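Q: Could you fold this chain for me?
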Amino acid sequence: MKRFHVHVHVENLDKNIAFYTAMFGQQPARTEGDYAKWMLADPPVNFAISTRGNAPGVDHLGIQVETPEELAAMKTNAVQADMALLDEGQTTCCYAKSDKYWITDPQGIAWEQFQTLDLIPVFSETRPAPDAACCATAPTSAAVKFMPKSAVKSDAKACC
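A: Sure. Below is the predicted structure, expressed as structure tokens.
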């Protein structure tokens, strides 16, 4: 078995332990004064790359679910933990139709939580743009904090 590893440098450990414990729905497997680790068996990883962004590097992270019930349970965790979220509902992006919402960790890293509903033949049915991270129209200023950095442009909207 292989396990995907992500390590995020954080500024406030306690605030982030609370955030990630709520998001993952479980306590860390190990906690130290400067470190916490979750050994997640669920979810497996969906890893994607694209040339549709402003700069190379991590654009955003996310958790893809298989059922509407799983997405609703994750959203309930976020709401109960008083996380602000941007609910896009059903949308198209990244060659797929999805139901999704965004949350942002304390460092400003965007987390997309979504269920893929169907595949589409273009990057976005709404408006494909070769230099945009993806999707449709300009984000509102309130929505910007939930979006991946590459999507925060005048002509782009958050997506996968």
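A (continued): Residues 68-80 form the longest helix (13 residues).
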